[in-house]
Recover the amino acids of this structure.
């Protein structure tokens, strides 16, 4: 592993094109992260077509750099505009904005960048060392093990993302239904193609993802009236903070980073949830919880270190099982597939050099992120003033190129529009998108492994329980469902008591 | 019934209808079992998905109906216990003022959003016949104008037109010449 890692670092650090693309990716990511209303996913979708013709390790390095920059960039608008640039920095506004109003914007920015740096490094380090080990373990998986892990991931996401577990499961079912369009796995029977040749290849993963995330985001931004941006003034000397500002916060920094990492590993939820949970944990375990919300570094550190460590966390299930940890990693999954790679246990065996060079690029991207944000803050703040009415149409044009260039057909652009509309309706009716995406991504693997498992066992369904790993995951699925239903019942009872 | 609860019932009904239509489609899938039926065929998983969705959506509708009934009961109890005759109900019963045609549409869907959707559909339809450059120029200009606040359109007009033309041409050449992607050239040949 260490030899491969050294080769990966050497291939990135000696390749000027790769270094330039990582640098550019971080810049793009920070810009998209900082602009309120546009998220990392929109940035990834927009720059995906740029990577089509690049060598796979360079293209994927650029995409991961956008991911790192995007999650970190949100802190700029969270502190200076009191608006989270991405959902991953919602909790950053709780302390960052009050600090900025107190005239401590420079200090807040400096501390937040430092927490982001430590968080990302923690996540990336754990990812580098844990992923190959986990991949080795998952190599031993047979069809039943795959089936139960996938089933567990689907029910977990459905219960984690929505108040009502049934609504989450319905969303996952919807995604799975869409995934059945095309040729069926193992026997290639056409399903729901309505005799159309174009439908026989089904909907491309990227069309669904970009439509559901980026186009929906753009349409939502289009429905809101543009407000003039008021950026608070700031002064930042050096790193913006001193050693004294971190006093008593080292444990908080490590705990939040590990918490973010753990939440990132869970399928479908990433930095957007971890920042709020880490903030709450920091507040509840603080000796002075009453000071939270008044502008103290503690909450800022918790939020920014946790959302950034979720990056490495979300990459672990993607690389080892092909299950994305959040929306951005779902796009990365599409990126891997475009470059002819299938994330999962075999990825390390078949594409080891590429994977290790991505690891190296992520480490480099983290350093670039911190240097760029400390050194080039003024430039990013200026970009906050770029109006949405210029950016939004441009994003649509670039996303359309991405869809069209997949197979040089307008059919995929119609798909983009369709899934953009579906995404919009889903957010209007409070139907969570992550279960839909995961359902769409995992249906193929779920069906394939279920059918294979049954073929191997001559149609005996009970065979799934004779495999310890698959039995364990099925029990975990049942436990998580029971727990969620119980919690839902308790919450509903409380709501009713309050007359909500 | 509360408006939010009605919306939730709508969600349940949508999934129920979707599942029924899906099941109807699934029944037409041809099956192929050359090695005997030892497990599942190509129709089984879609049918399973359809059945599960029907069960889940019906459960969801029942859950919402029960919640609504309980809420009504609680509200009635509160009405009886309250010494004041609740005038908050009257507030709810007041009909919203009727506005212009546009403002009535705005209550359901933002006009900007609706126009953006139409522009997107037109852009997609014209992508191949007009070509990337021309269709993108028209789309960028039209969409940028609709997103710009009304009072500021004049101020931005020249910039938007120049930016749209420049960006479309630049993107076309970068993608086709340097990134070797094929984009439709349309009537510009």
């Amino acid at each position: 592993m260490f030899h491969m890692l050294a080769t990966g670092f050497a291939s990135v650090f000696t390749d000027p094109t790769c270094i330039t693309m990582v640098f550019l990716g971080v810049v793009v990511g920070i810009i998209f992260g900082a602009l309120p209303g546009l998220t990392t996913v929109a940035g990834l979708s927009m720059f995906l077509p740029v990577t089509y013709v690049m060598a796979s390790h360079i293209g994927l390095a650029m995409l991961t750099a956008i991911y790192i920059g995007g999650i970190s960039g949100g802190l700029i608008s969270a502190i200076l505009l009191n608006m989270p640039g991405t959902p991953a920095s919602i909790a950053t506004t709780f302390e960052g904005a009050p600090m900025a109003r107190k005239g401590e914007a420079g200090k807040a920015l400096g501390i937040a960048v430092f927490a982001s740096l430590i968080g990302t490094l923690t996540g990336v380090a754990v990812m580098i060392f844990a992923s190959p080990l986990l991949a080795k373990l998952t190599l031993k998986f047979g069809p039943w093990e795959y089936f139960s892990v996938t089933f567990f991931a689907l029910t977990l996401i459905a219960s984690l993302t929505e108040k009502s577990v049934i609504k989450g499961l319905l969303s996952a079912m919807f995604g799975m239904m869409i995934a059945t369009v095309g040729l069926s796995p193992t026997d290639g029977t056409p399903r729901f193609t309505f005799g159309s040749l174009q439908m026989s290849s089904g909907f491309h993963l990227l069309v669904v993802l970009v439509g559901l995330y980026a186009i929906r985001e753009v349409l939502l931004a289009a429905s809101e009236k543009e407000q003039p941006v008021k950026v608070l003034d700031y002064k930042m000397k050096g790193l913006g903070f001193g050693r004294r500002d971190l006093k008593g916060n080292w444990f908080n920094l490590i705990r939040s980073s590990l918490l973010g990492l753990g939440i990132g590993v869970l399928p479908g939820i990433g930095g957007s949830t971890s920042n709020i949970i880490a903030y709450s944990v920091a507040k509840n375990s603080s000796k002075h919880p009453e000071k939270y919300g008044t502008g103290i570094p503690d909450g800022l550190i918790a939020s920014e270190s946790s959302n950034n460590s979720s990056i490495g966390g979300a990459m672990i299930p993607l690389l080892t099982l092909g299950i994305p940890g959040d929306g951005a990693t779902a796009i990365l999954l599409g990126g891997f597939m475009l470059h002819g790679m299938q994330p999962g246990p075999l990825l390390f065996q078949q594409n080891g050099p590429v994977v290790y060079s991505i690891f190296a690029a992520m480490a480099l991207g983290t350093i670039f992120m911190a240097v760029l944000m400390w050194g080039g803050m003024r430039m990013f703040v200026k970009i906050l003033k770029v109006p949405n009415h210029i950016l939004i149409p441009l994003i649509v044009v670039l996303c359309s190129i991405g869809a069209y260039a997949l197979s040089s057909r307008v059919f995929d652009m119609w798909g983009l529009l369709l899934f953009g509309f579906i995404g919009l309706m889903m957010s209007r009716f409070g139907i969570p998108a992550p279960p839909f995406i995961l359902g769409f991504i995992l249906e193929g693997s779920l069906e394939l492994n279920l059918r294979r498992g049954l073929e191997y066992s001559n149609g005996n369904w009970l065979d799934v329980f004779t495999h310890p790993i698959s039995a364990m995951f099925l029990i975990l699925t049942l436990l998580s469902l029971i727990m969620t239903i119980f919690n839902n019942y308790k919450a509903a009872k409380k709501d009713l008591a309050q007359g909500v | 019934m509360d408006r939010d609860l009605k919306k939730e019932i709508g969600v349940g009904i949508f999934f129920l209808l979707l599942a029924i239509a899906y099941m109807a489609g699934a029944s037409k899938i041809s099956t192929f079992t050359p090695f005997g039926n030892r497990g599942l065929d190509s129709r089984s998983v879609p049918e399973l998905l359809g059945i599960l969705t029907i069960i889940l959506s019906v459960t969801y509708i029942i859950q919402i109906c029960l919640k609504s009934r309980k809420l009504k009961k609680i509200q009635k109890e509160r009405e009886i216990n309250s010494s004041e005759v609740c005038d908050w109900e009257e507030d709810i019963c007041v009909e919203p003022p009727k506005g212009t045609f546009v403002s009535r549409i705005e209550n359901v869907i933002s006009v900007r959003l609706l126009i953006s959707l139409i522009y997107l559909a037109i852009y997609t339809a014209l992508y191949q016949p007009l070509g990337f450059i021309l269709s993108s120029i028209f789309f960028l200009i039209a969409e940028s104008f609709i997103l710009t606040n009304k009072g500021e359109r004049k101020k931005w007009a020249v910039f938007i037109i120049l930016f749209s033309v420049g960006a479309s041409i630049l993107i076309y050449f970068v993608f086709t010449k340097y990134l070797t992607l094929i984009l439709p050239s349309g009537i510009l040949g």
